[in-house]
Each structure stands twice: as C-alpha cells, then as structure tokens.
From TrEMBL:
SUPFAM superfamilies: HD-domain/PDEase-like. CDD domains: HDc (cd00077). This is HD domain protein. Residues 35-152 form the HD/PDEase domain. It comes from Bombilactobacillus mellis.
C-alpha cells in the first residue's frame, strides 16, 4: 500500500486534529517507545496505517484513526525488568482507555480498539474488524520501529564489505 504523509491527508486530519491538539496527547512525544521512536510517533503510525486499511476495505475510518491514536495513551515508561509483559499488556490498555475516556467521548468500537489492541498478549477477543486491524497494525509498527534502524545499519555494513 502506498504511504502518504499523514500531515498532508486532510480527510485523516479532520478525524484526529482535535486529539492531536490536546496536551495529553502531545505529552506522548516525551516517552521513548520501541527504542527508536516516541509514543506519539508510534500512535500516529498505528492510527494512520489503520485508517488507510479502513479506507481500502470500507470500514469505520473514524474509529480506526481515533482508536489507533489513543491506543497507547499512558505515561509510564515500561521496564520489562520491573513488570512482566502480560501485566503491562493488560494494565496499559486499561490505563489508555481510562485516559481516552477522560479526553473525549468514545464509540463502542473505539473502546474495543483501545482495550483489546494487545490481543494475543491478553485473552480478550476483539469484537470488531477495526479492533483486529489496529491490533495487527500495532504489532507491525512495533516491529518496524524497533528493527528498522538496526536493519538500515546492517544493510550499510553489508554494502561496505
């Protein structure tokens, strides 16, 4: 799928600009996420890629864009030495949902997207196709964000040989 810069997509921005303007969302810039990005960059990546899939398949793009943006709306910096992954998976989704509910009105789909975006690490099955998409896109973005710089370095090293 061709990637377009989310900043140039007026239809997407119309769905999320009110959230992006909020200090609670902007605060995510200050938290490192997946080693090489910050939580806001990650959330926008998940939101925008989910939105694009929703457009392609005729799904609820509003729920995808907004739920994707708010899926990691929590502020602690997770340390795997302090908290096991399954506890973090469940806890941060619940905290993100609570924070999102305090920020804006959420649809049932948006709630489901946020609370179940860690499916696989948590047992709750997503109820909507939109929830499945955000969960899968979240996984893809996490891997891409964590590995991309390493893969670029590896490729550069291989070219120098």
């Amino acid at each position: 799928m061709k990637r377009m810069n989310w900043r140039q997509n007026q239809e997407y921005l119309a769905l999320v600009s009110d959230l992006l303007a909020r200090p609670e969302v902007q605060r995510l810039q200050t938290i490192t996420h997946h080693h090489y990005s910050n939580r806001l960059e990650h959330s926008i990546n998940v939101s925008y890629q989910s939105y694009l899939w929703g457009k392609k398949y005729g799904l609820d793009t509003r729920a995808l864009a907004r739920g994707g943006l708010l899926h990691d709306l929590f502020y602690y910096d997770w340390d795997p030495h302090q908290m096991d992954f399954r506890t973090h998976a469940h806890l941060h989704a619940q905290i993100a949902l609570n924070n999102a509910e305090n920020l804006t009105d959420l649809s049932a789909k948006e709630r489901d997207i946020i609370i179940k975006h860690m499916f696989g690490a948590t047992p709750e099955l997503p109820c909507y196709p939109e929830s499945w998409i955000v969960s899968l896109v979240d996984d893809y973005c996490a891997v891409e964000e964590a590995l991309a710089p390493k893969l670029i370095n590896w490729k550069q090293k291989m070219l120098l040989k």
